[in-house]
Specification:
2 copies of one chain form a homodimer. By secondary structure, chain A is α+β, with helices and mostly antiparallel strands. Helices cover 30% and strands 30% of the residues of chain A. In chain A, strands 7, 8, 9, 10, 11, 12 and 13 form a 7-stranded mixed beta sheet that branches. Chain A has a 4-stranded mixed beta sheet with strand order 2-1-4-3. A two-stranded antiparallel sheet of chain A has the order 5-6. The longest helix of chain A is centred in the N-terminal third of the chain and has 17 residues, at 61-77.
Chain lengths: 283, 283
């Protein structure tokens, strides 16, 4: 096993198994063919052909979202979509643009629409190198229960923006108040496209670094994290390389941290597979 | 003009204007069609078809390099390749693998083989933010004469490796000795593919950050840099956005610095075009 395996796992999307979903002139999602077949029954909302599908309702975001929600209701009833998360994600032609519609978070991979999240590397640095605060996800989490996670991470729900989500999740997930969170610095964006049980994850992760003081200890407030521990980065990297203990996409966030902080270095023959592999083109 | 324009300029490669160059089972270069036509006259060394070209000699790197050199000699005489640089670059199937052959640096874009270089952001940080040491390239440089450049940058010639090139170029270009250069930290890899006058640049830039002390002043030793100046990052970014004063690929290195250090931030609607655009897949 290797670092590159972790990256490949998050990029197992196979275009032959999916068709693009269009809304007007914008490609807004990727439908796995079995999911597309399910949508073809809802022919007032989706027109499904062999090589593409189209969202038919036209109008403001509220109107289109309502039409999509009716379909999602059926999909939830049929257990094709895990369950309502009661948190909606914006679907826009491009990051920062007005949404064309919104969709319940649980249905995001079914439609393969692009989702955005934030991840925070909470770290300490001393003469022995870097250590990161690592959380263990609660065993009742829908995605990746019990897996190891970043200090703070969360999807960007509609209207929150990246920084707003960072502030909100830092408070809820780790009891990080405004003063400490203000020290977090944006450090880049990672991208991957992955087939999951539900469909396709087409994800963008905005990465932040937060150097925390020695007396800082995170405390989970929302029950989503079972506990936190401080781990030396070298140990984390070895565990990433040889196990699947970390949540699939958290492997990528920590590898990027190691690349940006010079812990992984160019003269390693596998360096480029990692440094370049963390960034998939946004087509 | 925008940051994204600078990135697009470095990624103007159009696959319709080029054919792949193969050596055995490895795609080792991209030949612009006019360059491919020139190679077709050397049919003991290259077999050129409509949709691909193939390097024919088989054997150790020295033997293959000799055959390629004979072709390069003609190309130089015909002024299709600028001139001999008397510095060779390795051509390997993949970073870190044994080279299949070597080629004179001046001919690298003609064959569109992948080239690797190092770039160093030499920076200072105080309460006003970041400043970078910027060099102005000598007016007799073959590539981008007179343009603004990083504190240190250089191509990785055969056998030097990334770190070895960093140490060598830091000394030659900016009189940075072993003690200071040891503080430079690897920070990632940027990639682009660009059509130039000579052919195709398929480039990987290994990026290093070097925080320099306030009393540091660079001094060029090899005549390749006309002078250095310390510039506030905000001013540099505005100049990158609105001018072409910086060497084409140096724009990318500094944008990456701004992304990694949180000077550009996710809530900017153009953020992803920059943060993601700096990384082109290594196909």
């Amino acid at each position: 096993m290797s670092f590159a395996d972790r990256i490949r796992h998050c990029n197992n999307f196979d275009p032959a198994r999916a068709i693009p979903l269009w809304a007007g002139e914008h490609r807004v999602g990727w439908l796995r063919r079995d999911n597309a077949a399910l949508l073809s029954r809802h022919d007032t909302v989706f027109r499904v052909c062999d090589d593409q599908a189209r969202l038919l309702p036209e109008g403001d975001a509220e109107f289109v979202s309502g039409a999509v929600d009716e379909v999602v209701e059926t999909l939830v009833a049929e257990q094709r979509v895990p369950k309502w998360r009661n948190e909606t994600f914006d679907v826009a032609p491009r990051w920062g643009e007005e949404p064309l519609f919104r969709v319940d978070r649980g249905a995001v991979p079914f439609f393969g629409v692009r989702a955005y999240g934030i991840h925070v590397n909470g770290f300490r640095r001393d003469s022995n190198g870097y250590s990161l605060w690592i959380g263990r996800r609660a065993s009742n989490k829908q995605v990746a229960p019990g897996k190891l996670d970043n200090l703070v991470a969360g999807g960007i729900g509609n209207g929150h923006g990246a920084y707003g989500t960072l502030v909100k999740e830092a408070e809820e997930e780790a009891a990080i108040g405004p003063e400490l969170v203000a020290r977090a610095g944006a450090a880049g964006a990672l991208t991957y496209r992955m087939e999951t049980k539900t469909g396709i994850r087409d994800d963008v992760m905005f990465v932040y670094d937060l150097e925390v003081p020695p007396d800082f200890e995170p405390r989970n407030e929302d029950g989503e994290i079972a506990g936190f521990g401080l781990m030396p980065l070298d140990e984390i990297l070895e565990r990433i390389r040889t196990t699947v203990d970390f949540k699939f996409n958290v492997n990528l966030v920590i590898l990027d941290f190691a690349v940006r902080h010079g812990v992984l270095r160019p003269d390693d023959p596998d360096y480029l597979d990692v440094a370049n592999g963390l960034h998939r083109p946004l087509d």
